[in-house]
Amino acid sequence: MTAPSALATDPLIRAIAEGDCEDIVERMNRGCQCVSLDHARLKAELERDPRDGALLATINATRPHLFADSVAFVAERHLDAAAALVEAVDHVVNSAGWQSAALAHAPASARIPCAASGVFLGFDFHLGTDGPRLIEINTNAGGGLLNVALARAQRACCAEVAPLAVRSPGDPERAFFEMFVSEWRSVRGDAPLRTVAIVDREPQSQYLLPEFLLFQRLFERHGLKAWICDPAALQFVDGRLLLDGEEVDLVYNRLTDFSLDEPESAALAAAWKSQAALITPHPRAHALYADKGNLALLCDDQFLQTLGVDAATRGVLVQGIPRTVRVRAEDGDSLWKNRRDLFFKPATGYGSRAAYRGDKLTRSVFANILAGDYIAQALVPPSARRLSVEGVATDLKMDLRVYAYRGAVQLAAARLYRGQTTNFRTPGGGFATVVALPCVQRDA
């Protein structure tokens, strides 16, 4: 992980090897402001297909804050702790007791059984001095292939960074494709997978359209026919899901209509109900993993004990998830009194929509929260990354996104931003490649 020559000569690298981990991580995130992104290499990664010859130019013109120019530093042991939490969540979610509890009040579409577990779980963490804290789970987490391209386009920008490693287990791009194959085989066995539809509302206007194109090319490189389409373009005819008359075998579902209830999703809903096409991620996966009310159960030690969850797994979950409760009107006085230490989120929302820091709340907004379906989560401030933005040292907030499948981490990436939540509108911000610092925590 580190080079002997650097260990011998550079005091920062020696300090990493010797310990004092939190101090080193903070020093690197605040002190290393150099540019590590090689834009020529990024262009080559994004434009491997001749049809995409202007993709990076389009991103720079229309999405200038999608990629950060520098890396983010994270203690390797914190990445290991995040991986342990991913594994613990998956262990619990796959238990019969959890599925019974989580699906009891879920939409009917979520109670349809399916052997496919759902692609692209995204576990989002804030990094505190005592380790990563899981703030939410998403079922259609975006950015996976974009972050693969970003990681491949990094170069060492200074001597301190040269001996360190980008955290990338194996070949994430291959793992992503094999994940879709695994989903298909879990449902269809040895039947050939021929066609894939990447589906989102008005995909040409979506912020992550560049990633849809990368996935289309990935599927095509493996011999599949792949389309990008709006759900309204699909038809369900005679037990088959069709796009322009051609049968769709697999749908890579990027919709935020998680239960497939909207009129535009009617063909998808019919195909899901009859299992005529494999839809992934699907309503059941969202109900089991990503309903934010689940976090209140996952950090409830007594509830986990009723499921028979072992003590070690319970410890990982209770330690790694900020205390979370469902908002109830009868708890309004207590929640208002303690609001400055809380973050409020809609249980079935996504992104940062209708989410509020407690210290920013007005009485009228709080009344809407009490009347809605919300969770209240102990506030865990994000860590910081200082970068040079147009020549000015600028402090950005930082969170960690871990992409995972069936309890195993595929890739970790950071997101840099200003404001209340991640927004991809911050100069100097965006996705950032994670560099792991292999230090160990020094005993007190």
Textual characterization of the structure:
The chain contains 17 helices and 19 strands. Strand 2 (121-128) and strand 3 (131-138) form a beta hairpin. It has helices spanning 4-9, 11-18, 21-31, 39-46, 55-62, 76-93, 96-103, 144-152, 172-188, 209-221, 266-274, 283-290, 293-298, 301-306, 311-320, 332-337, 363-371, and strands at 72-75, 121-128, 131-138, 165-166, 195-199, 225-229, 234-237, 240-243, 246-247, 250-253, 278-280, 324-326, 342-346, 356-357, 374-378, 383-389, 392-405, 408-417, 430-437. Residues 1-9 have low confidence and may be disordered. It is globular, with a radius of gyration of 22 Å. Helix 4 (39-46) packs across helix 8 and helix 6 (76-93) crosses helix 15 (311-320). Helices cover 36% and strands 23% of the residues. It has one domain. It is of the alpha+beta class. The strands form four sheets. Strands 1, 2, 3, 4, 16, 17, 18 and 19 form an eight-stranded mixed sheet that branches. Strands 6-5-10-11 form a four-stranded parallel sheet, with helices on both faces.
